[in-house]
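ENTRY TYPE: protein
WANTED: fold as tokens:
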Amino acid sequence: MELAQLRYFVAVAQTQHLTRAAEQLHISQPALSKAISRLEAELGTTIFDRSANRITLNPSGELFLQYVQDSLSALDSGMAAIRSQSGSVAGDVSIMTSCSSLLQPAIRAFLTEHKQIRYQQYRFSADLIADQLEGRSVDFAVSTTPMTSVKFSWTSLVQDELCVMVAAQHPFAGRQELSIEDLKGQPLIISNNLLSIHDIIVDGFAAQGLRPDIAYELNNPPLTEQLLLENRGIAFMPCLHTDPLPGASEFIRIPVAGHPFRYEVGILKLRGRFQRPAARILEQHLIDWFRTPHPELPSPPEAMQPL
């Protein structure tokens, strides 16, 4: 039994299609088919059910996949550890996220440390991430939508909340804290971005039996800045955000009492999928980074400290 056969087996199990798996592995479809047949001969049983358009794991194949993935994961982790010791970690990693701004400092630190790793990042709204993960186009996602199921695993990175953002001339600017009652009737500027700020705000007001007065809903930072400077309303931003607007010094960030606008950031993965070494290194980096205090980051209120 060869290592290549095991990797071929995993690729076919994931794609459920010989031709697509062959393209992914950069080998011919007949060669892949023969490799799978030889593997089944060595095992003494079939591990796939074949139909005209699909090739799916049978119960024996599902059992074998668990052991193969564990073995390959251990082997790749060992290889990554050796390369890390020699300072030669390389490879590819791709992620999708609905909160790219929160990741910027962590990703910047990662790429500075691992210059040989090729990195790709895609933006998707939280409600589309699960579908994209099932398409196996990326290694994992960083999302604000916790999800646990037989298909996905969730690793929490940090709990955060939205703070109020006002111009330095706004009547609220001198306040150390606001209540949600203070926000009642205030014209709100809601960023219609991938963090789903709209839903967080609406849910926070609804929990208090209130409805937000959304005057502007947009995804245009320069226009948001202009509206704030004209005192046309108040905006919201993550408390962990480090650079909310181009003229950050002209704006004041104020927490809201009772933490009504909470959200969680975490890593969402497709269960059972082989993780490339670079992806595992990035995943651990993000876990460590968010759980380590950083002097350049503003600290959230005590009740909302990172997990």
